[in-house]
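User: quick one, sequence for these tokens?
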């Protein structure tokens, strides 16, 4: 590691010398620079951190995309003919060079972040003291850079969500960027402080984690990732900040008007919420479109966490409040449809006459953005009202339930075969519901795939009961989120009635578990026959949607051992059912339930159509069906043994009679 850092420092020192030498090639030691040197002074940039594959043409093409370039030179190794990691770019204007340095510094070029400096001519005037001073400064600079390189690559993560309750969870969140040496989550007597620390093995991995995770949403909160400093440096910075604050207090008192108008980036007073955006919209295109109303501080599109694709909405924050009000006031308002008028999904000229609110042929809907807390409160307060307005009677919103996002830690544990199975299942289910309008998603029935072939229905039912208990335990331990109020209210009155009947009868939360079996010729057979083998999938039916959702989220991706001892992970989704079949089944269950209730009310005797019980000896009445008593397994076995003994006795008697008959015939 130290050797690599030393080689890097030597290359940078050679680059500094090359810059100075190149800057003085056009001038003499004692005389003034020539005309070419005076013209190109401060129009050239010294470029560091170039990749080994960089050439004069590729560097010139990269910078020409932003500013006019006169020429570019990459310093190469005479032996290998590869780039030594630095070079020069000369622009046609001094202003272009300054703007290029400000804009393109730290930009990525062929996988490397460039470092730009303005190339200045070397001043050779001065005696030996100047040379010694310059050498000392260079040595001090190298020592500082070496000390910086030896620092532990430690990051501080602020504004962490409360769902991250342990250092293991924090380490798991950042483990995809490289090997982690240590993770710490400070707390105050068990109460988390909202920030944590991550120490990586290498600085490269830490830089990658900071670049990709800074400003990213994690469980609904935007985290901030930065380099961690020592406690002494932090206390010194705090002391400096307090000194500056004390010095600025008199100015604040004399300038009270300026205090009333601070620049706040987290204020939503100038932020708008945009709907009906094209799915091809990016942050840059959204910002560019709304810049016609005034300066824009930032623009962000909303990405769906499940699909990892744009959701068609976004946020735009203006710098000035007047521009915000103008954009909001002149935004197109939705109008009721006019009878006989032509309807178009593209731009409506009657709504957006000047086209300022139309992006890629779609008329944008603009509203004042609310804070995250208000949005959460409104979301939790209105599930019942939204459920009434929902027109998705087929419950297709449950179709993605069971999909594992690609950025999830569980996704990395799946084998390529399991990933392919999940993709095929998602495509097949989507085609089924699109082709047949009678199909809908069940609230209580789960389809389980990738089952071990040695698992039967009894074991599957036990696993389904374990899933509900496991989900509740994970919620208590903070390993997963509890069900939201909206999810608990999905079942409505049907779920409440089902739960009431279940508790009255004292039954469990799992109504049925079934493993689909097949015979040797591939036909479906009943599992009770014992003559088939498992097809590798089955079904689980819970008593209500609440238990089904808990079971699905715990079982999906759950590892099991198959008959060969290999680990397989279950694929669990809400089952697709035919609405007509379900309607007939519910009608039959309702009639059977009413029939049982009527029998209980009459003391176990069935009633006729008029509600009168059948009486023995009444003429003109049909004989009631004999209600068979339910036998216990012990009674059934005892009865079966008695029948077998009787049959054996009859066979023995029959054989004896046959023997006697043959003897008589032989005489």
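Assistant:
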């Amino acid at each position: 590691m130290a050797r690599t850092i030393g080689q890097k420092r030597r290359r940078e020192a050679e680059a500094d010398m090359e810059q100075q030498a190149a800057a003085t090639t056009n001038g003499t030691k004692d005389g003034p620079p020539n005309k070419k040197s005076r013209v190109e002074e401060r129009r050239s940039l010294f470029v560091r951190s170039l990749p080994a594959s960089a050439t004069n043409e590729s560097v010139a093409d990269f910078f020409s995309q932003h500013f006019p370039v006169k020429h570019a030179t990459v310093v190469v190794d005479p032996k290998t003919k590869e780039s030594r990691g630095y070079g020069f770019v000369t622009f046609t204007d001094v202003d272009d060079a300054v703007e290029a340095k400000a804009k393109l510094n730290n930009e990525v070029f062929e996988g490397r972040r460039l470092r730009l400096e303005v190339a200045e001519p070397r001043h050779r005037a001065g005696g030996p003291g100047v040379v010694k001073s310059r050498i000392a400064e260079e040595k001090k600079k190298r020592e500082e850079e070496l000390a910086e390189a030896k620092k532990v690559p430690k990051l501080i993560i602020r504004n962490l969500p409360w769902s991250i309750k342990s250092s293991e969870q924090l380490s798991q969140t950042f483990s995809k960027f490289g090997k982690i040496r240590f993770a710490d989550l400070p707390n105050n007597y068990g109460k988390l402080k909202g920030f944590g620390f991550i120490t990586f093995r290498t600085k490269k991995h830490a830089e990658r984690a900071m670049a990709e995770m800074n400003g990213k949403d994690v469980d609904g909160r935007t985290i901030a990732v930065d380099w961690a400093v020592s406690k002494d440096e932090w206390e010194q910075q705090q002391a400096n900040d307090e000194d500056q604050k004390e010095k600025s207090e008199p100015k604040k008192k004399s300038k009270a008007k300026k205090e009333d108008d601070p620049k706040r980036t987290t204020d939503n007073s100038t932020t708008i919420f945009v709907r009906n955006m094209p799915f091809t919209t990016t942050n840059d295109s959204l910002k560019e479109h709304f810049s016609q109303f005034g300066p824009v501080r930032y623009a962000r599109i909303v990405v769906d966490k499940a699909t990892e694709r744009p959701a068609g909405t976004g946020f735009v924050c203006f710098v000035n409040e007047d521009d915000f009000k103008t954009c909001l006031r002149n935004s197109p308002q939705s109008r009721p449809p006019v009878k006989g008028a032509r309807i178009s999904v593209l731009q409506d000229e009657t709504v957006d006459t000047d086209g300022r609110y139309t992006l890629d042929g779609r008329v944008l809907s603009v509203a004042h953005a609310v804070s995250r807390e208000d949005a959460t409160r409104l979301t939790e307060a209105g599930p019942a009202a939204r459920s009434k307005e929902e027109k998705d009677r087929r419950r297709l919103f449950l179709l993605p339930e069971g999909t594992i996002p690609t950025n999830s830690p569980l996704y990395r544990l799946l084998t390529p075969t399991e990933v392919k199975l999940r993709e095929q299942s998602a495509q097949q289910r989507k085609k089924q519901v699109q082709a047949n309008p009678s199909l809908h998603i069940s609230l209580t029935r789960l389809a389980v795939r990738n089952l071990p072939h040695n698992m039967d229905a009894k074991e599957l039912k036990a696993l389904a009961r374990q899933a509900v208990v496991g989900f509740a335990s994970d919620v208590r331990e903070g390993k997963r989120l509890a069900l939201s109020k909206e999810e608990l209210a999905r079942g409505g009155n049907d779920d409440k009635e089902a739960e009431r009947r279940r508790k009255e009868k004292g039954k469990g939360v799992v109504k049925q578990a079934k493993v689909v079996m097949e015979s040797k010729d591939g036909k479906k057979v009943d599992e009770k026959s014992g003559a088939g083998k498992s097809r590798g999938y089955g079904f689980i039916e819970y008593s209500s949607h609440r238990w089904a959702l808990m079971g699905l989220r715990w079982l999906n991706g759950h590892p099991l051992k198959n008959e060969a001892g290999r680990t397989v992970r279950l694929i669990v989704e809400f089952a697709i059912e035919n609405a007509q079949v379900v309607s007939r089944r519910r009608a039959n269950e309702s009639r059977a339930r009413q029939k049982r209730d009527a029998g209980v009310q009459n003391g176990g005797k069935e009633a006729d159509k008029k509600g009168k019980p059948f009486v023995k000896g009444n003429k003109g009445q049909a004989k009631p069906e004999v209600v068979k008593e339910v036998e216990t397994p012990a009674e059934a076995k005892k009865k079966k043994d008695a029948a077998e003994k009787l049959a054996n006795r009859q066979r023995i008697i029959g054989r004896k009679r046959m023997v006697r008959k043959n003897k008589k015939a032989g005489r």
